[in-house]
Each structure stands twice: as C-alpha cells, then as structure tokens.
C-alpha cells in the first residue's frame, strides 16, 4: 500500500508529491500548518485544530484554498486512503506560487498539502521514566501565536536538545520565564501543588492539547494557575510535563540535567494524561506502573 499525499486537488503517491520551486512556502516560509493526531482512526481535537488554522490564515491574510468542510473531507480521505489507525496528519497551506517578490502577489491561489505519517505515540519506557528537557534562549519572532511553517529556531533548538540527549528544548525569554518547548507547551506543578502553564499570548502557540487540558483540569477540580513561570521555579517544581498533539501529555523528569521532584513522573501529570486519552477516545495503550505514583 503506497503512502498517499494530497497536493492541490490530487491524491498522489507520497514519494512523487511535489510543489513548485516558486511556491512562497519554499521561497519565504510564507505559510501555515496544523498537525492533527489520528487515534484509532479518529481525528483528535479536530475542531480546535481547524479553528486555529482559520486564525493563522486570517492573521497572515492567506485565503482558504478549499472550504473548511471540504478540508474535513480531505482529512478523512487521507486517513482512509493511507489506512493508518494511529498517525499524524499534517496540513500545510502557503500563499501559493508566484514570481519571487516579497510583497503579496496580486494573483496566487494558496497551495494545500496534506501528508499522513504512521506513529506509535509514546513508548512504555518514555511514559514510565519521563523525558529530559534542556533549556535554550527563545530566539523566535514575536508572533508565535501563528502556527507558521517558519520553524528555523525550533529546528536549531531540537537539534541542540538531541545533541544533549534530551527530548525537547524549553525556550526561555530574556526575563527568565519559560515560554514553551520547540514543538510543545510547557507545564509544571508547583511545590504547593498547583498546575501552572503560561497564558496564551503572542509569545506562545496556544496549543490545542493545552486548551483541552485546561478544560479537563477544571473538570477534575485541579488547582490551576495560568501564568508565566521562571526557569528557577521549574527547577523547584514537583512535576513537569509537555503537551502537544503528538505527545499528548508527556512527563518531564529532568530539566538541564536536574531531576524534577523525585525524578519520576508524578501523579498529576498521569491523571491529566489519562483524562486526555479518554477525551480523544482511547485509553493509554500501556498503563503506567503504580510504583511511580
Ligand atoms: N507542535 N508550541 C509549539 C511551538 C508547537 O509547535 C506545538 C505543536 C505546540 C502544541 O500545540 P498542539 O497541542 O496544538 O499540538 C506548542 C506540533 C505537534 C508540531 O509542530 O509537530
């Protein structure tokens, strides 16, 4: 079964799928994207991802290439045609193809590309041990609320993380506060037991997983503070975790080589992960060992 991609109205073999060299996505990173996770054949948090896509397009004044309704249909077609039960579905929209010139082209149809990649989600080991993060200065632009395909700082950040044996790099603003991971939102549980994550603003991407977790935490009666936290506070946290479409809720057990709490995944992160997995319609494939409670 060949992998299938969608490019501007056609379903094509993934290996031979192309866009033009004068596509503004290639020339200027003039485009946006979304990553929707497919869990057991179902699109997780689909409405939230489409709402954020609409917002990103609107902020950059890029027109919808197809109606949202048609896009939903294409997304389902991609899942079916690729026969993937657990997958990451990427939607990318650029301002389209035009002779190279910085200003918006007078006439250009936006380019729409969808790709689908099989995924195994988190390994039992990652869930049992948690993952290490390192920290780096946040060198990104100031419209991080737009899910732009311009991702160079995150490419460099993730590479640094990998070279230091870490899973993710948390980005730190000049004022010493943690903004977010390179491809995830950052959370801590304070010494006093409050769940903390940074408020949505132009300084972070307002994660769809993040938004669902805030609602789920409220339903569970978990004490929650939506505020910026410093790296110092993170070092002293009882628990930490990251959230994103691809990692759901993934415990962070060390920051810059320092153990978080007792160095094991904590109960609040586990509770939220279970709640999120139920929300997307599937229990976690591997229950977490009780001794880490
Ligand atoms: N990344 N912050 C950044 C900078 C991100 O790139 C992402 C998502 C998130 C989490 O957002 P969400 O919960 O909507 O996935 C936060 C996706 C998964 C990616 O680029 O692969």
List keywords for this structure.
about 290 residues, D-amino Acid Aminotransferase, Chain A, domain 2, 15 strands, about 30% helix
Quick take:
The protein has 293 residues and is an alpha+beta fold. The protein has 8 helices and 15 strands.
Q: How large a portion of the residues is in β-strands, by DSSP E?
A: 25-35%
- Give the termini separation: 43 Å
CATH topology of the largest domain: D-amino Acid Aminotransferase, Chain A, domain 2
Helix run count: 8
Radius of gyration: 19 Å
Which whole number gives the mean pLDDT? 95
Order of helices and strands: EEHEEHHEEHEHEEEEHEHEEEH
Structural class: alpha+beta
- Weakly predicted, low-confidence segments: 288-293
Count of strand segments: 15
Which class of the largest domain in CATH terms? Answer: Alpha Beta
What's the CATH H-level homologous superfamily of the largest domain? Answer: D-amino Acid Aminotransferase, subunit A, domain 2
Structure, described:
This protein has helices spanning 24-28, 46-60, 68-82, 124-129, 152-163, 208-220, 231-235, 267-279; strands at 4-7, 10-13, 31-39, 42-43, 87-94, 111-118, 131-137, 168-172, 178-181, 185-189, 195-197, 224-226, 239-244, 248-255, 258-259. The chain is α+β, with helices and mostly antiparallel strands and 293 residues long. The chain has two domains: 4-118, Aminotransferase class 4, branched-chain amino acid transferase, N-terminal domain (D-amino Acid Aminotransferase, Chain A, domain 1, 2-Layer Sandwich); 124-279, D-amino Acid Aminotransferase, subunit A, domain 2 (D-amino Acid Aminotransferase, Chain A, domain 2). Strands 7, 8, 9, 10, 11, 12, 13, 14 and 15 form a nine-stranded mixed sheet that branches. It has a six-stranded antiparallel sheet with strand order 2-1-6-5-3-4. A hairpin with a 3-residue loop joins strand 13 (239-244) and strand 14 (248-255). Bound molecules: N-(5'-phosphopyridoxyl)-D-alanine. N-(5'-phosphopyridoxyl)-D-alanine binds next to helix 6 and strand 13.
